[in-house]
Amino acid sequence: MGIQQSGQQRLDDRPAGEPEDIGRLIHELTGRGLAHYEIDAPSDPAGEWFVDLAIGDFETVVGFRPNAGFGIHTSEALYGSRPDEVFGDAHRTAIRLGQLAVQHAAGRGLRSPGLRDLRNLLEMQQASVAAAYGGDQAAISRLEARNDHKLSTIADYVRALGGKLELRVRFDGFEAPIHIGRDAPEAGGAGPVRKARPSRRR
Question: What does the alpha-carbon distance between residue 156 and residue 123 come to, in Å, rounded to a whole number?
């Protein structure tokens, strides 16, 4: 089932069964250059919805699952693959789609968010990040413009934004989070903690 619309949509004019969050996303995007969109509803109302949309000449598909949020692919989206980025609300999803549209218009292709993108997603000013980071605004500006960073620097910046840095690795056949630092378990050290089995009494 496809619902094709263009122009503006009022939040109370949503098609029957369409999640309120999708209506909010469309409403947010109308002020960000939304050219057209089409909504594909799942056969199961609890399944994944898809929103095909265009902002200027940037076209993409955004997935939405109730209670899970919006998913955006910035890498090649293979059938059944998980989205690269997940957002819990329509407002931040719209901001991120606007960033991707700007990247596309500049011919830079799609990429994961950089430090400045993260700050703009959270709608924070450099001065407030500087106060939490322990530097001045000029230092934050230089940091955001750099192409090379230490992991500890990125971790401190993300912490100043109110988040936590996590790392993952991907190989053919597996992917996993990794831990880097002095408190990482040493090779041959203690493995996973296992609960003792209760003794059986006869």
Answer: 18
| Of 97, 88, 134, the residue nearest 117 (C-alpha) | 97
Ordered mean pLDDT values, 10 residues apiece, the chain (202 residues):
44 65 96 93 89 95 94 78 92 97 92 95 96 93 93 94 93 89 55 54 53
| 26 in Cβ contact with 34 (< 8 Å) | yes
CA–CA gap between residue 127 and residue 138 (Å, rounded): 9
Calpha distance 30→26 (Å, rounded) = 6
d(CA 16, CA 28): 20
Instruction: Give residue 74's pLDDT.
Output: 87
What whole-number distance in Å separates Cα of residue 91 and Cα of residue 104? 20
Element (H, E) at 22: helix 20-29
Q: Residue 80: what pLDDT?
A: 64
Cα Rg of the chain (Å, integer): 21
Q: Select from 149, 110, 112 the least CA-distant residue to 140.
A: 149
List the alpha helices (DSSP H) in 57-125.
90-105, 115-121
Is the four-CA dihedral 135, 138, 139, 145 of positive or negative sign? positive
pTM of the model: 0.79
What is the spatial distance between Cα 46 and Cα 48, in angstroms, rounded to a whole number? 7
Return the pLDDT at 51: 96
